[in-house]
Design a protein that fits this description.
single chain; 316 residues; alpha+beta; Jelly Rolls; four-stranded antiparallel beta sheet; 8 helices; 14 strands; binds 2-oxoglutaric acid
Length: 316
């Protein structure tokens, strides 16, 4: 269970706490952040879109500074994370590899959830009002292994229902094939939900559960190389993964996972993953609407501002 509120727990704030991002208040101010019909169509076809600018250089620097501070947190601060995984092979520093819950810990990662370019694109790709499900950090230090094996996100999220989720991946470094950028398999979001085959270790474990046609499509995988501050968005069933960082610099990324504002807990018979032992409390068949799942975009409220329909996905 998640620890009760500490004075430093930023999840008590269901709104931005600083002025890192100016919030649009009119249709005109939202306009520059809006995805086009073509981008929506591309997402429908491929299960992802890429190249969306979310952060400027200063904002990236601020988040990287906060990220560095995660290496020296007190135990109490550390307990705010839902999950915190260091890579033991990197001893003595035990460098952070994967974490969930950064938004509870530092103001920049908290307010990132309200970055306008993220909020508008996510609304269009969700097709309705949505909440935070959780955030994540994926850090690959220089010259480091750290593959993230091929997977579909929703195969780890079946303790929620129905499936109406979205992932926004934001680079905190320029990402390249050499430093372990993300890869996508276009069209794999139409494959249905596949069995879980693991996130670490064998990059290609998923191949054991693919049929011949899927294995052939797999060969079309696309390297999602991006400048820092830019994002890609993917469907909860899109197959993705990333190889090792062979470069002499770190490869860091932050991820925002969203869900329909009416998503329910789906806990009957569900064995909690060890990795999520300190995930916020959920109740079977009840909406995930506590302070840990803030409403990030209220379509009814925001759409009043628009005279014309905005391009939106019909999410299946
Ligand atoms: O950043 C990575 O290497 C993996 C990211 C990922 O798996 C995700 O965003 O779901």
């Amino acid at each position: 269970m998640i620890p009760s509120h500490s004075s430093s727990d930023l999840s008590v704030h269901g709104n931005p706490i600083g002025n890192m991002f100016k919030q649009p208040s009119t249709a005109e101010e939202w306009e520059p952040y809006m995805l086009s019909e073509e981008q929506i169509a591309l997402f429908n076809k491929n299960g992802f879109i890429s190249g969306i600018k979310i952060l400027n250089e200063e904002q990236v620097d601020l988040l990287n500074k906060e990220l560095a501070s995660f290496q020296s947190l007190t135990d109490q601060e550390r307990s705010l994370f839902y999950h915190y995984d260091t890579n033991e092979s990197e001893d003595p520093d035990k460098v952070l590899f994967h974490a969930l819950g950064t938004w509870r810990v530092t103001p920049g990662f908290h307010d990132l959830l309200w970055a306008p370019a993220f909020r508008m694109a996510a609304y269009q790709l969700m097709g309705r009002s949505y909440r935070l499900f959780h955030d994540q950090l994926f850090c690959k230090p220089a010259l480091h292994g750290g593959v993230v094996a091929w997977h579909q996100d929703f195969s780890y999220w079946t303790f929620t229902k129905p499936m109406h989720h979205l992932t926004c991946w934001i680079g905190l470094d320029d990402t390249t094939k050499e430093n372990g950028c993300l890869y996508y398999v276009p069209g794999s979001h139409k494959w249905g939900l596949l069995p879980v085959t693991g996130l670490t270790g064998d990059m290609d474990a998923v191949r054991t559960v693919l049929n011949e046609e899927q294995l052939a499509i797999f060969e079309n995988r696309i390297a999602n190389e991006l400048p820092k501050g830019y994002a890609s968005f993917h469907h909860p069933l899109t197959m993705h993964g990333s190889y090792s960082n062979y470069s002499e610099s770190p490869r860091r990324a932050t991820v925002i996972n969203t869900m329909d504002h009416l998503t329910l807990g789906n806990l009957a018979g569900y064995e909690r993953l060890d990795a999520l032992a300190s995930f916020p409390e959920m109740i079977h068949d009840k909406p995930l609407d506590s302070q840990f799942f803030p409403l990030l975009f209220d379509g009814d409220k925001e759409l009043e501002k628009f005279k014309q329909n905005i391009p939106m996905i019909d999410f299946k």
